[in-house]
Amino acid sequence: MSWSDILYPDNPVRRERVARLHQELINCIELNFDTTNELIEALNTHCQFKLHPVKMNMNGTVRENCDILLAAIKSIQDILQAIDAKLKSNLEPDLYRKLHDFQEPDATKMRILRNVATFVSGLAGTVAMGFFIKLALSQVVSRVLSQTTMVLAKIGASVIGAVAGMLLGVGVDLIISAILGAIERDQLEAKIQELSELVSEFKPASKEYNKAIMKILCKLP
Fold this sequence. Notes:
It is a single chain. The chain is mainly α. It has one domain (7-217). 72% of the residues lie in helices and 0% in strands. Helix 2 (11-47) runs parallel beside helix 3 (62-90), helix 3 (62-90) packs antiparallel against helix 7 (139-157) and helix 7 (139-157) packs antiparallel against helix 9. The protein is elongated and about 65 Å long. The chain crosses the membrane at residues 116-137, 157-183. It comes from Mauremys mutica (yellowpond turtle).
């Protein structure tokens, strides 16, 4: 037992909590990588996209891995927005408005898209059109994607974001070793507070992102 633990007997408990929260954060990041790769595979298969799958850098920092995810999600959003821009330029304003009206039935949107599918790459085929409706024209998915990118950016910008090592315990060891000494108690409390806030926001956002995308993918043939 260190002198720090003798002087501050609650520090081992604080360290365990830091380790647990850090691992929860890493688990959420891993879930986001898996979900994004599932989405990329589906887009490449059904919409003829040429997106590259993403891979966690286990030796990199939390921030670097968040940046990898952010870049991948942005690439997906950019392509979908490019298709949407082509739709806007090829459709009558009223028809384009109907595409983005969540009260309009999917069957109506499919009929609208069939009229311009030959002019818009990525929309060839019923599956691709249905995929686009559920993914790009869904208010739920748009909100989930925006929320996910906002939380990822927040994590990357945090002090925790600078910690290297995505493997279990590696990042935690770096956190702990940087704050040993008389001020460890206060530093641990600060890290617990920061991690708690990030996890409480990121965990439900990650689950919602995964749920929204998986719900769409499960309907694909």
